[in-house]
Amino acid sequence: MSTAAIVVNPVKVDADALRAALTAAEERWGWEPTHWIETTEEDPGTGQTREALDRGADVVIAAGGDGTVRTVAEVLRGTGTPLALLPSGTGNLLARNLDLTLDDVDHALDTALNGTDRPIDVGVVELRDADGDNRTRRHAYLVMAGLGIDAQMIAATDDDLKAKAGWLAYVKAIGKVLRDKNELRLRYQLDGGRVHGMRAHTVLIGNCGSLPANILLLPEAAVDDGEFDIVVLRPEGFVGWVQIIVKIFWENGIMRRTSVGRRLMGENKEVRAMNYLKGREFVLKLSRAQEVELDGDLFGRASALKTWIDPRSLNVRVPKDA
Question: Where in this chain does the record put each DAGKc domain (predicted)?
């Protein structure tokens, strides 16, 4: 008989209800009792996932927000042991991009115990610390890495408001951040090509393209295409922000989603304020250290980063009829 392990963020779930649902799912599919392992403030999931592997779990269920999912996936990458998602946070970014059910615990557990495995790409990033001694930190991410306005927005978001209002809490933070005239001065290299220099407000490196509120930021991004998509935002004043808003919310969010809309759009043209890139390895150096976010969590300040795709290195459980 098979055995699952569940890595649980106790702040994000109703433990009693989840335990009852787990017992029912085990009985439905003939599985052994699931190993229940809770995260802590000191360890958000790394040690717990290693414990799950040591116990011989046939699947590891991540029950928590995007941070829990990212941490569990970081350990499971390359092991062959599948990751199952029990969406429990505000963003649920990977679940959204895989079109998984968000608010149905029984369906999520049925998928975990009786679904099929879908291999997806994982982004790996090395961050060079801001103190200038060339120390680096390596992490994995599933959805997006970013610096600039998006990282500043996360830093400015009120956690209490986020708990009450969900992703709408970011709206208040956006207003605060947009008043900051700070620009990034950077040099970058894509897939070993020539070095480019530019000024920008935000750089986002995506393995997936969709964000909460049905925002399609990276319309060509696919979670298993062996590449990531990069968008550089560099608006110049009010007109530049209008170009970005029209591109993201009108063209990507509405027109691109239907065949009629795509025909009306015609040839896809970039706007001056928003540039797209695609590749497998991206190296970026900053004139001064900036906050970096991975899948919606801050990872401190970095003066440079190198990121690459580890293709199809993580198995994710999805419904058999997906």
Answer: 1-129
The yes-or-no verdict on residue 79 having pLDDT over 50 is yes
pLDDT at 273 over 80: no
Structure pTM?
Answer: 0.85
Q: Please name which of 280, 314, 253 lies closest in space to residue 118, comparing C-alpha atoms.
A: 314
pLDDT tier for residue 166 given thresholds of 50, 70 and 90: low
- Look at the chain and report how many structural domains it folds into: 2
What is the C-alpha to C-alpha distance for residues 56 and 289, in angstroms, rounded to an integer? 42
Question: In the numeric block, which tokens belong to residue 250?
Answer: 């009108």
Q: Are residues 79 and 141 in the same domain?
A: no
Cα gap 51→171, rounded to integer Å: 38
102-127: pLDDT as tens digits? 889 999 999 999 999 999 999 999 99
DSSP string of 257-301, one letter each residue: GSHHHHHHH-S---BTTEEEEEESEEEEEEEEEEEEEETTEEEEE
- For residue 126 the two structure tokens come to 């090395």
* DSSP H stretches of helix in 98-252: 105-114, 149-156, 159-165, 169-178, 237-245
Structure tokens at 236: 């110049």
| Rounded distance between C-alpha atoms, residue 6 and residue 18, angstroms | 10
Distance in angstroms (rounded) separating the CA atoms of residues 226 and 309: 6
